Amino acid sequence: MSHPLPYGVFATPDDPRPRTGVAVGDRVLDLPATVAALDPSFAPVVAGPSLDALLAAGPSVWAALRAALTGWVDAEAPVVWATDPSMRLPFTVADYVDFYASEQHATTIGRIFRPDQEPLTPNWRHLPIGYHGRAGTVVVSGTEIVRPSGQRRGPDGPVFGPSQRLDIEVELGYVVGTPSRLGEPVPLDRFAEHVFGVCLVNDWSARDIQAWEYVPLGPFLGKSFATSVSPWVVPLAAFDHARVPAPERTEALLPYLDDAETEPWGLDIRFEVRLNGHLISEPVFGGMYWTGPQMLAHLTVNGASLRTGDLYASGTVSGGSPGSLIELTWNGRDPLTLPDGTTRTFLADGDEVVISATAPGPGGSVINLGSVIGRIS
Ligand code: MN
C-alpha cells in the first residue's frame, strides 16, 4: 500500500530530546528507535534533532527509506510509536526565498495598488518574481506571533507603532535536500534530485510597514518578523496522483524556464484557511502559473548554489479564492463578517489562523499535509 509518510521532528513528555519521526495516519513513528530495531543501516540519516541528515542524504536514500517504511507499516512490523508527541521545527532553515507565482494574487494586488495600470508588471509572465527572506525567523506551527512594530505612512510623515494591517499569506514551501555547486544552475528536469518535499507556509505580512518600505528594493521588515511552517514535510514521492499540468502560458518562455516538454509539476493541493475557527477561504494550488521546478531553475540560473535546508515558498496562493486578507477585504475597504458576527479587515490581537491542506492520493485516498497554526499576541 502507498502511504504519504510525511517527515517531522518531535519530542515527548518522557523524552524531551527532539528526534525525527514519520506520520502514519494519526500516529507518529519514532524513526531512530524504529531503525535501531529493524534496520540500523538507516541510523545515521535519521539521527539528530532535525531532518537535516536525511535531507542531505539525497534521492536514493530517500527512496530506500520510503520503501523500507512502507514495507514495515504494511507488514505490521514492530515499529516504535511515539507517545504524546509534540512537534518541533523539522529542519534547519538555510536560506529562505519567497516567490509571487499566483497569477490571481499578482493580478488582484496590481488592481488594488495600481488601478490605472496593467495589473501584472511587464516581467511577470517571463520570470518567477521573488525576494530573499529571513531564514532565522522561520518558526514552526504553534509559535505565537508577536505583532510587529515599525514605520508606516502617516498624514504628516512616517509614524512608528504596532502594525495595524497584519495579514496572512497562504503558501506552499519547497524544502531543498541535495545541495548544488556554486556556478552550476539546476535545470527543470533535476528538480526532484534536489527538492525533498513540501510544507505549508504562512508568510505573515505587515501591510502598512510593507507599503512604506518596499520601494525600490522590495519587502523587508514588513515580512521578516516571522514566517510559520507546518511541522510536516511531505516528500515529493507522495504526490504521484496529485500532479497536474501547469496552466497555458500566454508568452513564450526562455529555454531554462520552458516546461512544455517536461514532466508536469503542478500540484492539486487544496487549502483551507480558518480564522478563529471560521472557514474564510479555500485557495487551490493546482493552477499556479509558475511550478516548483521553474522557481528552482530561476533561483539558480545565475549560478547561485543550493544548501541543504533551503526553503523557497510559492507566494500567496489565490486560485479559486484568495490566500490573504488584503485580497479578501480589498485592502480593508470591504470587511469580512465572520459567522460569530465579528468583522475583520486585518488581524486582531488574539486571532488564531489555521491553514490546512490536502491532495489526492492513490485509489481515492487523501494526502493530509497537516496544518500551520499561528496566534497573534
Ligand atoms: Mn509571501
Features:
2 domains, alpha+beta, globular, 4-stranded antiparallel beta sheet, binds manganese (II) ion, Fumarylacetoacetate hydrolase, domain 2, SH3 type barrels, 19% helix
Provide an overview of this structure:
It is a single chain. With 377 residues, the protein is of the alpha+beta class. The protein folds into two domains: 82 residues, Fumarylacetoacetase, N-terminal domain (SH3 type barrels); 280 residues, Fumarylacetoacetase-like, C-terminal domain (Fumarylacetoacetate hydrolase, domain 2, Alpha-Beta Complex). It is 19% helix and 28% strand. It is built from ten helices and 24 strands. Strands 5, 6, 7, 11, 12, 14, 15 and 20 form an eight-stranded mixed sheet that branches. A hairpin with a 5-residue loop joins β21 and β22. The longest helix is centred in the first third of the chain and has 16 residues. The protein is globular, with a radius of gyration of 21 Å. The structure holds manganese (II) ion (MN). Manganese (II) ion binds next to loops.
The ligands bound in this entry are: manganese (II) ion
Q: Spans of 5+ residues with little confidence (pLDDT < 50)?
A: none
Termini gap: 44 Å
Shape: globular
What's the total helix number? 10
- Work out the radius of gyration: 21 Å
In CATH terms, what is the architecture of the largest domain? Alpha-Beta Complex
- Assign the CATH class of the largest domain: Alpha Beta
CATH superfamily of the largest domain: Fumarylacetoacetase-like, C-terminal domain
The main β sheet shows up as: 8 strands, mixed
Question: Gist?
Answer:
The protein is of the alpha+beta class and 377 residues long. 19% of the residues lie in helices and 28% in strands.
